[in-house]
Amino acid sequence: MATQLSKRSICRAGVASAVVLGAIVVPAAPAMAAPVNIPGVGTFDIPEIPAIPAIPGIPAPAPAPAPAPVETAGEKALHAAESKIGSPYVYGAAGPSSFDCSGLVQWAYKQAGLNLPRTSQAQLGAGAPVSQGDLRPGDVVSFYGGGHSGIYAGNGNVVHASTSGQPVKVAALSSMPFTGARRY
User: Fold this and answer.
1) Between the chain's N and C termini, which has fewer beta carbons within 10 Å?
2) DSSP SS3 for 79
3) 73-183: which CATH topology?
4) Can you give the pTM of this predicted structure?
């Protein structure tokens, strides 16, 4: 009997040490004791374990930094087009120093790593359709039945190369008859 008592005492001491050191994982229980059965030793009621308090003098770990926002191809294309505001309009030009409307769109998207069709009509026929109410900065917007294109700049504006004698500029989306929009 002394041998059994001794073994039981040693096991209980080992369990108590393991609990203190966190070696035994006990499922979290809501505010009441949870019975834990250790074969050959017995069943124990383990009360809810409170959170470990901060250790004075040791700073808490810094929170992980927020992930950097990912810029879409459309947003990259918009930034490229905005960098050309003031560049001259030249019919048939596709950059890098002068543009027509579809040439500006094609060039800007190429800077973002995408190859778009060359003409306004073809740009209206490619990509994923987007309703006017769902426009996001960088979407390709078509006007005049598909004969003119630009890049939506947000806040009801579009960056486009409008016509001869007018440089690349920002204009109100409402200043031209909207035909459709595409997202690439």
Assistant:
1) N
2) helix
3) endopeptidase fold (from Nostoc punctiforme) (3.90.1720)
4) 0.65
